[in-house]
Amino acid sequence: MAQPSDDQRYLLVDVDDRTLSLLAQERPASFGGRFGDYRPPTRYVVGVGDVISVTIWEAAAGGLFSGPVIDRLGTGSRSAAIPEQQVAQDGSITVPYAGRISVAGRTTAQIETAVVEKLSGKAIEPQVVVVVTRSVSNAATVLGEATSGAVVPLSPRGDRVLDVIAAAGGIKIPAHEVFVRLSRGGSTVTVPMQALLNDPKEDVYVRPLDKIVLIRDPQTYTVFGAAGNPTIVPFDAVGITLEEAVARVGGVLDARADPSGVYLMRVEPVRFATRLRPDSQPMESNGYVRVIYRWNMRDPNFVFLARGFHIRNKDAIYVANAPLADLQKVTSLFNSVAQPVVSTVSVAQ
Asked: What is the pLDDT of residue 38?
């Protein structure tokens, strides 16, 4: 079976302005872009499992919910508090003399009106106040290794992602290592914590039953070859550019580096790889292609190209050795082997 050629296993791309333009169009996932509603929930409704209390007032004593007048000076009790009860699976609660009342999907004001209508003609000009004492349906879940985790009730005014995270106890590790994953319905988006801190549009309103997971994922890239200090380098989740990434390791070694051979290796989705080089047919694996980006430091536009290229997690940067540097290695090796022989010959003579 024929083995794939290097040109098929890797997609080599010389970075230019077109490359940066295509990369810029591949915007990272964002809360604002996916969920994009910057308004709080339109209304706060009761749901199954919520706990509510109902208090009923009457206009005069001696009614269904008011106490009798025991003397000429007293007016009697005119109200009664019904014990707290949880909304049943069928979405209803029980109110004495009113029977079962459907409350799921209704606001507290709508429930109050429904109870008053049921008691009309039975109680003396009743007035009702309904309070949600514990909400399950209007809550978001926060969990993950970067937080203590909690089920956070949402307030009628609306709560944003950072509000809910703070209510759950905040984060326990540096923000630049944390990613926030928001799941709503069938959509899930993960963004860096610093994106929420830096861009108000990312701090969207949380909806009931949203799930927020805080993930610890330190970002790193690797530099090897003719760099000042080849190593694994951590960086903030908001990202850095190639220019900054190379500078962090002391730049390139003038005596060893090949200015035309600065490479960055990563995997890209197939659909994006075909846009980079429509003429190529690279081998894919699970929908991804190995891409090698190449820069020429002799190009006057190199600094601007490097400044516009953003590093991603687990990128690998390789600075090639100049041919002369390889020759110097061979020469040094030859000298280390030949010098003892020369010395021995000199002594023998």
From this structure: 64
DSSP codes of every residue in 256-274:
TEEEEEEEEEEEEEHHHHH
Both 229 and 146 in a single domain?
A: no
Lowest mean pLDDT among 153-167, 216-230, 258-272, 335-349: 335-349
Quick one: pLDDT at residue 68?
Answer: 57
* Nearest residue to 127 via CA among 112, 106, 107, 110: 112
Any long-range contacts for 181-187 (C-beta under 8 Å, 24+ apart)?
Answer: 181/144, 181/212, 181/213, 181/214, 181/215, 182/31, 182/35, 182/210, 182/211, 182/212, 183/210, 183/211, 183/212, 183/213, 184/35, 184/209, 184/210, 184/211, 187/34, 187/35
Give pLDDT, residue 63.
Answer: 78
Q: Is residue 56 domain-shared with residue 92, that is, in the same domain? A: yes
Amino acid, res. 208:
P
Same domain as 246, residue 189: no
Q: How many domains, the chain? A: 3
Q: Is the pTM of this model over 0.85?
A: no
189 and 288 co-located in one domain: no
- Among candidate residues 134, 163, 184, the one where a domain is terminated: 134
Structural domain harbouring 177: 35-40+138-216
Give the CA distances from residue 223 to residues 90, 112, 245, 249, 289, in Å, rounded to whole numbers and listed in that order.
61, 66, 9, 8, 21
Residues 122 and 153 in one domain: no
343 lies in a domain?
no
Same domain, 228 and 311: yes
Q: What confidence score (pLDDT) does residue 77 get?
A: 58
State the Cα–Cα distance between residues 331 and 153, nearest whole angstrom: 72
Do 276 and 244 share a domain, yes or no? yes
Start-to-end Cα distance in the chain: 60
